[in-house]
What does this fold into?
Amino acid sequence: MASSIANGGGGHDALRFYLTKTAQFVFVLATTLLGLVAVTFFIGRIVPIDPVLAIVGDRAPPAVYARVRQELGLDLPLIQQFWIYLRKAVTGDFGNSVLTTNPVMTDIANTFPATFELATLGTLIGTLIGIPLGVLAAVKRGSLIDQFVRFIGLAGYSIPIFWLGLMSLLLFYAKLGWVPGPGRIDVTYSYLYTPVTNIVLLDTAMQGQWDAFWDAVSHIILPACLLGYFSLAYISRMTRSFMLNELAQEYVIAARVKGLSEMRVIWRHALRNAAVPLVTVIALSYANLLEGSVLTETVFAWPGLGQYITNSLQNADMNAVLGGTLVIGTVFVLLNLVSDLLYRLLDPRTR
Amino acid sequence: MKRLPKFFLSAALVATMATSFSAVQAATPPDTLVHAWQIDDIISLDPAEIFEFSSSEIAGNTYERLINYDIKDVSKIYGEVAESWTVSDDGKTYTFKIRQNKKFASGNPLTAEDVVFSLQRAVILDKSPAFILGQFGFDKNNVKDKIKQTGPYEFTMETDKAYAPTFVLYCLTSTVASIVDKKLTMQNEKDGDLGYNWLKTHYAGSGPFSIRDWKANEVVVLERNPNYEKKAPLARVIYRHIKETATQRLLLEKGDVDIARNLNPEEIAAVSKNPDIKVDSAPKGTVWYLGLNQKNPNLAKPEVRKALKYLVDYAAIADTIMKYKGEVHQAFLPKGYLGAINDNPYKLDVAKAKDLLAQAGLKDGFSVTMDTTSRPETTGIAQAIQSTFAQAGVKLELIPGDNKQTLTKYRARQHDIYIGEWGSDYQDPNSNADTFAANDDNSDNAKAKPLAWRNAWDPGPLTAKTRAAVMERDAEKRAQMYEELQKAVLDDGPFVIFLQKIEVAAERKNVDGFVMGPSFDTNSVAQAKKN
It folds into this structure.
């Protein structure tokens, strides 16, 4: 605020700020993506896997093999191949996936929403439970609650998600029957709605297919809780340490001296300040989940991005891998931007 | 604070709704058969391109072929779309009569025009399996003259040489010879692609089921074809892609799927104790083998090749690691093929192996590597072989790798030993003989690269014998020629064939009539039902 008064024109300054910010963002996005594409592209061409195999299989006669190799442009010099790819990518053509035969972006439009849905719910669960737990652990440092939170954090960090996923299926699905089996929605419901966003919860709710909606809810609960638990483990530990740091600050003592209630001191003052670094933690954990949790997706037969990219990578389906990498790169840059903006909202000093 | 109880109330409501809902969905509908299967190998639904396991099975249930064979006795060939056929005296011209009154799922009548179109189309598109038809001298340029319609329900096919009729007919039982609805396919043609870009993800057939939907890596949905003569009892068949085998088992035991297709031996042992589940299996036309690269000077010695054949504990592998999934088999023709020999002469015999190694001047053994894909089955077998090799002083180092990576190396002949599976391309013995027992050119830039080439093996006179066997018109004599070829490869070839693959499926007890044949395209749900 002070600086804008000194400059004599708040509006101009804000505009300039947003312009620089936008330019910065575009620049970062462009360079990040270009770097990502270049690295992924060349690694993809260097790995000792023959991409033609994924298309024609092991049995194709030599003539078919040679023709496909030529069609893929694999006989051209690497640099030229890269240039061709870039030129097409700029126009939005990321090529076709070999394994699914669809354009890569169509595949990603199918798989990313599945991951998005799961990651968002998981992060929500992790944040809504993780932050209060972390705060509680910091406030009651050394108490039973603190030990409990530490245990949860440790378990969440060290138990393989794969195992925990199978065990939770065994318990809640096979033994107790509280949730339906793996998959996104029951097959009987999957034709009741038209996929628009491919976010099943959203599509079914918007089209008023409530039976299908509740079926989708019951399918997502378990994997979302599982992912939520893992982000909770991380978020609660980080909240605890940020809060411990804040609670030792002088302003907290000052607030207490002023006679503010303990509730107010903790939730309004200390947490408000701890929130700034927490935003980065949450954004990072969200980004991690958005990359697609391959193991969770595999156990729960969830057709998400993680499975898609892993499967493509194993088959040297490089168009798909490149497309997926670009999407993940964009997600990271976007989340960075969002956390930057949130910083400004939460921390007056950065304004 | 006042809002809190309300929030909890609604959360509780959500939870109960969700759980009560799932309780309703306990079993699959009675007219729908649900498979849990790894179907991420599907890359196309066009029969002219299909060459993968899962898509072959789907094509087998949705398309009809000109000829088919009895899955209980492969030697019995019968006409499916063909009513009858004759072969000319010179052995080159086949005349087929087509059954009348057949209809596609679209309602279009099936005539000789569709059959001719389908065969020509497969040759012209020239996708991976097209060579099965190309073997008879067909190519893009001549196929229209060689396969000709001669009447509304009659056509002729002219091969370049007088091949064994069994060879020609068996090849016509392949998926690539499926009959496609010409009218429907051509309505969807773009830029002269013969409907290829459309049919890759759509359906134009006449089989017991039609393909309603394919979502890659997710699901394939089949629906009963009302125009099929012997109407399928089931209204719907769903193949769900479930990658994780433990998840398949959970779904099966819970009744959310009817058949689990990829359970591992421990899981099969566990579910077979469940009174609601039965286990069914069928030997497949696939063999497991070690390929010994003859570029390695040690492996090139005939005594070493033979010694290694005595250093595999065949019975132990079949009874433990591959229980339910494989049976001992050592000849290159799988059981069920014309001329296949099923006596397995080799067993683990360390003393004999040591003897042979000493004769080769390697009495202290030697070191060698084996490229092994990191699948649990392959790794398990490789470790078993590693330990038996060691008993005679052969130090086997395993090089783990991803499937495609290992295969790339193998195809470039850069391995010492390769462990893998080989499935026949079509139901005729020539498919395997051509790859295990023939190698026209062993140079690095050879045009054809059969398994013999990949292991840098020149089979000498066996190549000519393989070529002669495919021309032998007397079926009995032909079978005998293949027996001789198998014996020769068993004796001296660079292949340690140890198992024939068994496909195993765990089914709910109420499933009846899901039949597994010797190849994937003969796994049939046509008459399956649920009691």
Remarks:
- Residues 3-24 of chain B form the longest helix (22 residues).
- The radius of gyration of chain B is 26 Å.
- Residues 148 and 156 of chain B are 5 Å apart (CA to CA).
- Chain B has a mean pLDDT of 91.
